[in-house]
Amino acid sequence: MSSLSGISKGVAYIAISGVCWGFHGVMIKYALGLGASFMQIFLVEVLFACIFFSLFWSKFFKQIRPTGFSQWFRLLLIGLATVGVGYFLFLSYSLGPVTIPATLMFLYLPVVYGFSLLKRDEHLSFIKTAAITFVLFGATLTTQIFTTFDETNILASVITATCASVCYAIVFILTPDVGKYTSAEFRSFTVSSIGFLGCTTILFFEPTLWYDLGDNSLRFYIFAILLGIVGQTMPVIFLMKGLPLTGSSLGGVVASIELPIAVFSAFILLGESLTLFKLIGVFLVLAGIITYNLADRFNVGRYPQIN
Question: Domain count of the chain?
């Protein structure tokens, strides 16, 4: 386990990543309003990030590098999981109400925490379990998923959203160990380049996912630069730097700061309503993040030999 100062730095890195993704949600809504598809948005983001991270090629293998099939496979799996997050989210958004993927994405939290228990990185803690429950319940209130309960034919959206959350969990589970033999720059480049290859493959077989933007084309591609910075460059590099310092479970909880940022940025920038349910949900998410962070600081649920 990293030192306390290292963990604090990791928490800060992942918080920055979460803040970026919070604003990114609002930016996606604007891009969708220009007529772009979710897959188009993802493609331009990972293309920009791939080009950006390639500029740091000299740092890829400067000190450490993957050796052997197992290490390369785990690194590639992180990249494939990233593609899975984007693809399954797109399907879920297409197959049902937006509230379903927006809420079920947070199922990655119990998956990551459960894996840390199975791996014996820590033992079951009532406080940490309660903190994750706060975040999940807060997400449910904030996204107001209960408004979809009377709708039919949402099973496909639920299944694909769950697949997206599992892919997201894989990123959090694998990155701390992969960080031992890869640089943050190379991890970020790998994630972005595999994301780009994955998107181009999907669009090759499903060209209908590439929409004609008409008069909005120039505006979209200019805006795509900002999307690339906020959506795939800054959050990815900070996540790749932070997770090896915090570990998967703490990093996963801190990353959920994305939801409160998304709620307030949508209220300020898009004029979306800020209901009492949303405010209570935001409070619960923040309470969960703070509770888990404090519990981790006092080594609640940690095995003594790991410290």
Answer: 1
